[in-house]
């Protein structure tokens, strides 16, 4: 069986704040909203992939991006066209900076944030190879 779509469902105690962060702070495109039996908001985030890391690799990524092991079992990563602009926008919308952008060995510029709901998020910009 091939999957058609990957969805991640977050449960938020402060629905409005979390929706505002993903909409305004990360600039995700707004999809359908449900209002029956509570509320649910879909955000469209481009193509989806699922990374499964062992604890050693997760620790290595944390060491590169932050300098120490800090993320939990789940961390979102969003590719953005301009990591500095994306970080500034996210901070304005309530994110906390965990670590400023760093250039990884695979030539991505990665920044680590903590969303208002506590989830760790990597924003990354794929850098052009040096000529």
In terms of topology, how is this protein built?
Elements: H1 15-25, E1 29-34, E2 40-44, H2 55-65, E3 75-79, H3 83-92, E4 96-103, E5 108-114, E6 120-126
Parallel strand pairs: 3-6
Antiparallel strand pairs: 1-2, 4-5, 5-6
Sum up the overall morphology in one term.
Answer: globular
Which class of secondary structure composition applies to the elements? alpha+beta
- Ranges where pLDDT stays below 50 over 5 or more residues in a row are none
Largest sheet: 4 strands, mixed
What's the alpha carbon Rg, rounded to whole Å?
15 Å
pLDDT averaged over residues: 91
Query: Strands of the biggest beta sheet: in what spatial order?
Result: 3-6-5-4
Question: Helix coverage percent of residues?
Answer: 10-25%
Any idea of the CATH class?
Alpha Beta
Reading the helices and strands in chain order gives HEEHEHEEE
CATH architecture: Roll
Task: Report the strand count.
Answer: 6
CATH superfamily: 2,3-Dihydroxybiphenyl 1,2-Dioxygenase, domain 1
Count the DSSP helices.
3
Number of domains as seen in the coordinates = 1
**CATH-defined topology:** 2,3-Dihydroxybiphenyl 1,2-Dioxygenase, domain 1
Tell me the distance between the termini: 42 Å
* Percent strand: 25-35%
């Amino acid at each position: 069986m091939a999957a058609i779509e990957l969805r991640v469902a977050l449960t938020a105690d402060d629905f409005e704040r979390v929706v505002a962060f993903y909409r305004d702070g990360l600039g995700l495109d707004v999809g359908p909203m449900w209002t029956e039996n509570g509320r649910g908001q879909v955000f469209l985030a481009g193509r989806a992939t699922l990374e499964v890391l062992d604890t050693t690799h997760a620790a290595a990524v944390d060491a590169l991006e932050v300098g120490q092991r800090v993320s939990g079992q789940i961390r979102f990563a969003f590719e953005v066209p301009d990591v500095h602009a994306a970080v500034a926008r996210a901070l304005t919308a309530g994110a906390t900076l965990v670590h400023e952008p760093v250039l990884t060995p695979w030539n991505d510029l990665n920044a680590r944030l903590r969303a208002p709901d506590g989830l760790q998020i990597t924003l990354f910009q794929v850098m052009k190879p040096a000529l």
